[in-house]
Amino acid sequence: MLIKVKAGPEKRSEILQLCEVFRARFIDVHPETLIVEVTGTQDKIQGLVAMLAPFGILEMVQTGTVAMTRGAKGEAAEAVQPAPNLKGIVAA
After folding, report:
1. Considering the entire predicted model, what is its pTM?
2. Residues 6-34: tens digit of each pLDDT
């Protein structure tokens, strides 16, 4: 999940420490906002959202469960057709 939270200078260090507890990463830092990336169980994500809510959550974006097989080639890769040859196409 990506969370944009209001984070003025007076609250920034408190938000940074809170996010460390949840092992969240900072994606963008702006003078008045922070964008935080957090992954994990739904309980973990909801916990961070609850802790950030008092600061003022401005935006949130979340996907569902995402998974990929490990290794050089997965089953899905075998089903995908190669892209057509685009050499003859010239951008205008």
Report:
1. 0.69
2. 998 899 999 999 999 999 999 999 999 99
Question: What's the burial of 48, exposed, middle or buried (CB within 10 Å: 0-12/13-18/19+)?
Answer: buried
Determine the 3-state secondary structure of 76 from DSSP: helix
Please give the DSSP secondary-structure letter assigned to residue 10. Answer: T
Strands 33-37 and 2-6: antiparallel
Rounded-to-integer distance, Cα 70 and Cα 47, Å: 29
Cα–Cα nearest to 24, from 34, 32, 10, 33: 34
Give the pair of three-digit tokens for residue 5: 């939270």
Only one residue has tokens 């209001």, namely 6
